[in-house]
What does this fold into?
Amino acid sequence: VPSGDCRAIIDRCFDLTAPQVTRYKNGKQAAASYTFDDGYSSSARIAAIFENKGLRATFYLVASAVADADWAFWRGLAAKGHEIGNHSMTHQIVMSDPVLTNQVLDTEINASQRVIEQRLGRKPLTFAFPWHQYSDRAMAVAMQNHFSVRKLDIDDSTYRFAYFDQEHGRTQAESLQLVNRQLAEAVTLGGWFVAGGHGVDGDGWSPVTSQFLIDHLNYAQTFSPQLWTDTYVNVARYRQCRTQVRPVITTASSSHATVRLSGSFNPAFCTEPLTIAIPVREALRGQVTARDAIGAAVPVSIVNGTLQFDARPGSDVTIQVSGATR
Ligand SMILES: [Zn+2]
It folds into this structure.
């Protein structure tokens, strides 16, 4: 707990030499994303379960398998904040096969992305390979126009991929216990839990029940003070952009400082805010406010001994301290 009175002198109130971008959004220590492949009809039920909890999921579509009449449904989900990702053109090609031509890979990956973009009115930003199968060449094609590819493993020992299916000879209770344990591990390690499922309640490939999903999400909510749950793309973007920027602080006066996330970030992908935390040095007996580059108020909070607020890469946030008024 900070002591003293910083007398509304900004570099006495906050340690301006030690700003950080928090590991996950809003200072959360871990993240969870839920992905459902192949666009089964029970996706409507899945989406409703997430929406009832104020959450959003990711749905990976097979472009050529979506009926004309169904695109309006997917547009509606996208408008509500769910992610619609790309899961290939046909789902008929095993993309680890070394004899595949570049043309086939281009059709399965890039042409599929264009079809989904035309039908949806927004470009799918992430890709998921059918059966998680890919070669280095297929991965390179996927990364030409997508920002991230969902994988079983990434170069991060805190990553946990969980199957939401009924395979592997487990009962539903055993499966639930396993995925809950994987989530708890990711939270403890400060990592990213990614679930991969299909449909629910008898629909699609090896479906779990909607009760399984509800029971798991209820368990996940017990971690909500530490856990950020969002779509695959939103978490992938935060993780990627966080490594490409650092907060740079310029003191403008004794009561003002400007913070900017600088670095060689990808401006096409790093379009969403990251959370900045600045350690509190001494208690402020007044108030702290923040404004963005066009003067709009930015919410601030003091959490765990830090001042926290959001900023978009490349744009300024000005923080100001003022003395107590009476
Ligand atoms: Zn699939």
In short: Residues 8 and 252 are 14 Å apart (CA to CA). Residues 37-38, 87, 91, 130 surround zinc ion (CB under 6 Å). The longest helix spans residues 102-120. The helical segments are 10-13, 43-52, 71-79, 102-120, 136-145, 172-189, 210-221, 232-242.
